[in-house]
Amino acid sequence: MKNPVSALLFFFFVHFQTFCQELPVEITSLVPNHYVHTTYQLIQNNPFPSNGLIVSTSVGIVLVDTGWGLEQTEKLLAQIEQKLKQKVVLCIVTHAHEDRIGGVKAFQQRGIKIIGTPLTAQKTVAQGLPAPEGILPQDTTFRVGDTTIQTYFPGAGHTDDNIVIYFPNSKVLVGGCLIKSYVAMGIGNIADANLKTWKQSVNNVRNKFPNAEFVIPGHEKWDNLTSFSRTIELVEQNSKK
């Protein structure tokens, strides 16, 4: 492109498109009545995925974790309404980082119950963000309609408040950011991590739920059970630094 003005205009057009690109929101069928929700934020100018779970129960939709931020959560709730034709009755958050609690306000505005552990609620308030109700025991089993839900705190790892959520009927485990994807090339955000206990916490989850057939990590791909071992590899690599 010989004309310098044309070249400059082309440069700004391409970069404006990149800046204004629409970040996707995805709902992917997993097993009957269970769907992975994936929302995105830009990391180093590239869309990076964050996963949660949608479960259709006999009384409405249960979500594990909000979308990544308020805008993505708004889009997610709109898609659920459009595609699944069922009201959302509950959201459970797994720890107090934006990719898990960034959309709390969207649920509160709609009058949808959103809960976390007392520690997660405290940590969210400390960040000056809208907080979930801190009423969820770290380790408990309860039912929503016809669906059994187990929550479990395995110990500190990615954060000191990270819990996992298990659905025994479907054998789906939501590991949140405690569990890294089997394709993960790095350990990610460790600002609030405990690298000394993370490995044992992962093993605690694996021992607690040996029958899990699907393990949904906080980010990236979930279709392989080697996410446990990959997480431990990444923790060990970073512990040596």
UniProtKB/TrEMBL annotation:
GO-annotated cellular components: periplasmic space
Major localisation: periplasm
Listed GO MF terms: beta-lactamase activity; zinc ion binding
EC number: 3.5.2.6
Name of the protein this chain belongs to: beta-lactamase
Cofactor(s), by name: Zn(2+)
All residue ranges annotated as the Metallo-beta-lactamase domain in the record: 49-219
Listed GO biological process terms: antibiotic catabolic process; response to antibiotic
Cross-referenced Pfam families: Lactamase_B
Locations listed in the record: Periplasm
